[in-house]
Design a protein that fits this description.
The complex is a heterodimer of chains A (340) and B (109). With 340 residues, chain A is mainly alpha-helical. Chain A folds into three domains: 2-67, no CATH class; 81-159; 169-339, no CATH class. Chain A has helices at 2-14, 21-43, 49-59, 62-67, 81-109, 115-150, 180-199, 222-225, 228-248, 253-275, 284-289, 295-339; strands spanning 205-210, 213-218. Chain B is an alpha+beta fold and 109 residues long. Chain B has a single domain, classed as Orthogonal Bundle (Arc Repressor Mutant, subunit A), CATH 1.10.10. Chain B has helices spanning 2-26, 33-42, 49-61, 84-108, and strands spanning 31-32, 65-72, 75-82. Chain B has a three-stranded antiparallel beta sheet with strand order 1-3-2. The longest helix of chain B has 25 residues, at 2-26. Chain B is globular, with a radius of gyration of 16 Å. Classes of the chains: A mainly alpha (340), B alpha+beta (109). The A-B interface holds A 20, 23-24, 26-28, 30-31, 33-35, 38, 59-60, 64-65, 68-69, 71 and B 32-35, 38, 49-51, 53-54, 57-58, 69, 75-78.
């Protein structure tokens, strides 16, 4: 019986971490002994090593046998796989779009470039997108694998498993309805921005600790604050608009047009911020104050920060343009619905 | 070749669907895994041991079977028998099966 014992031990080593592993091993040993005895009886002789080997070969590789006892053989099972795919598509699309725009802006702001430099920049951009997508895929898969492993099915019901009422199909879609939480959140955040930029601009900075305690290195330059009055107009208009939306509870043609106007105004401000001198006050000298004394490193960091803020502003323009298109689309569809 | 593979897969799926009912129907009296495997085989249903043993454990975890270790012929064996809950479920499964057979008979006639 030596071979059977070894075989059972091999299976045992590969069994998933489920309750009763010892029990599975005992049952497997007992079964194999029964099968061997059966074969010996049929052959009319006592069991030998060759018979044992033949039996074990037929029973299968220990790894395969152990796998049959795995109650959950999936990394991400069918229960949460559709949700995994949904999240993955959104994240990968966002990464690809964001990094493509960033690469485009980077190339545009570094011109004139030689053809070799241009191809090199495009190549680097593609590699960046690929590596960012792979990292995102890995992280998302890890999170979902952990959910699969540790969240019991009963505690993690997906939307599709909840009771669905076909009557929900009868409800007319109301794109003009205002989501109260969105309006409130927008008002709160705009107030915070107004108060910080106008009354506490010293709070916006790189914080560092020295002998005198915490200090902040200002990051925004005069070029930024020059346009603050215009930004205030945009923010106040945003607060007024959201207040109106909260009162009426619905979007109408007037509020949609005001919203488009505010966004267009915001784009003008961002373009002004992009066109003038840098809105960042970070210089190699100012970085020396926070302990980055290596001039070359400070210059690199400062250059990256100035470049980075231009990318951020470029993305902000893109996002606002998308918002305007969405608003205009809703305006047109709403007018069609109302005239129908 | 592809046809043979497809046929094998479909047959496997069909069998997999009936093993639960087959096992529950034969465990009115207690049996250990290998004796159940042989009984099913004698009755014409060949079941892979790699399918049957994990299935028995799963049915026990679901409360449809009960099991107990017994020492026989100097060998410990785990005996399975249908539980009270399994007994309640079995007639319903039989009725369901009869319905499926009747529908399929009509379809395939």
């Amino acid at each position: 019986m030596k071979l059977i014992d070894r075989y059972v031990a091999e299976v045992g080593k590969r069994l998933p971490l489920v309750k009763g592993r010892k029990d599975i091993e005992n049952e497997l040993r007992s079964t194999l002994e029964d099968m061997l005895e059966d074969r010996a009886n049929k052959a009319g002789r006592s069991a030998d090593e060759a018979m044992e080997m033949e039996l074990l070969k037929e029973y299968g590789a220990p790894q395969k046998v152990a796998e049959t006892y795995n109650p959950n053989p999936y990394l991400i099972g069918p229960r949460i796989f559709p949700f995994f795919m949904f999240i993955l598509k959104i994240v990968l699309a966002a990464i690809t779009l964001g990094l493509t725009i960033a690469t485009g802006i980077q190339i545009a702001t570094q011109s004139p470039m030689s053809a070799v430099e241009l191809f090199s920049a495009i190549g680097k951009g593609i590699l960046n997108i690929l590596s960012a997508c792979m990292a995102a895929f890995g992280n998302i898969a890890l999170v979902f694998a952990l959910i699969e492993r540790f969240a019991p099915a009963a505690d993690f019901k997906m939307d599709e498993e909840k009771e669905w009422d076909p009557a929900s199909l009868m409800k007319e879609p109301k794109p003009q309805d205002v989501k109260a939480w969105e309006a409130i959140l927008s008002i709160v955040l705009t107030f915070i921005a107004l108060s910080i930029f106008n009354f506490n601009p010293h709070l916006i900075g790189i914080y560092y600790l020295d002998e005198g305690g915490w200090n902040a290195l200002p990051v925004l330059s005069e070029a930024f604050f020059r346009w603050l009055p215009l930004m205030n107009i945009g923010w106040i208009a945003e607060i007024v608009l959201n207040g109106m939306l909260l009162r009426t509870g619905r979007w109408d043609v007037g509020t949609r047009l005001v919203s488009v106007g505010i966004k267009a105004f915001q784009i003008v401000i961002i373009v002004l911020l992009l066109a003038g001198s840098s809105i960042l006050a970070i210089t190699p000298e100012s970085l020396a104050a926070i302990g980055i004394t290596d001039m070359e490193a400070a210059q690199k960091l400062s250059g990256m920060a100035h470049q980075g803020i231009r990318v951020v502003l470029g993305l902000a323009i893109f996002g606002t343009v998308v918002d305007i298109i969405k608003s205009l689309y809703k305006l047109v569809t709403q007018r069609n619905l109302e005239s129908a | 070749m592809a046809n043979t593979e497809s046929l094998e897969n479909v047959v496997l799926e069909l069998r997999r669907g009936v093993i639960v009912l087959a096992a529950l129907s034969q465990l009115g009296t207690e049996q250990y895994g290998y004796s159940l495997l042989k009984q099913l085989s004698d009755l014409g249903l060949e079941v892979d041991q790699g399918t049957l043993y994990p299935l028995l454990r799963r049915l026990e975890a679901q409360g449809l079977l009960e099991s107990v270790w017994k020492l026989e012929e100097s060998r410990p064996r785990r005996y399975y028998v249908i539980s009270a809950e399994g007994k309640k479920l079995l007639p319903k499964l039989k009725k369901e099966w009869a319905g499926i057979v009747s529908v399929m008979d009509r379809m395939l006639a």
